[in-house]
Please model this.
Amino acid sequence: MPETNRPKPLPVVTEENRPFWEGCQQGKLLLQYCIECQRYQFYPRLYCMKCGSNSLRWVEASGHGVIYSYTIIHQNKSPEFVHDTPYNVAIVQLEEGPRMLSNIVDVDLTELRVDLPVIMSDKILFCFHLLPKPDLCNSYLA
Ligand SMILES: [Zn+2]
Model:
């Protein structure tokens, strides 16, 4: 296996995405919201991708979503990630509408399914974890 002391690549912080990353550091998931067409968008841009307006403001999202799709990575030849396999990469459909690429953490990979509800992790930046299964909650409350 290749060995490296090279750190994992970090996101490139720009003026347009800086509020998003600063929000993550504070445990907040921030999305851009277009005042003109009242839609959320992700990833951050200088203008609304729906109507072209630059009337965008940053708002805190609920952090709730569902797994739209996912894959499990069994091989990654990049030395920075070779010891992380197997791991998942998921597309999370946020409650507000946008989809984002992320990881589902603290999960047995065999539990992953499309449409499972997730919530943003309060421990790991920009990652989600599964919500408890509704049937378990119901039986606990009964
Ligand atoms: Zn718009």
About this structure: The first strand starts at residue 30 and ends at 34. Helices lie at 18-25, 134-141. Residues 18-25 form the longest helix (8 residues). Residues 8 and 81 are 7 Å apart (CA to CA).
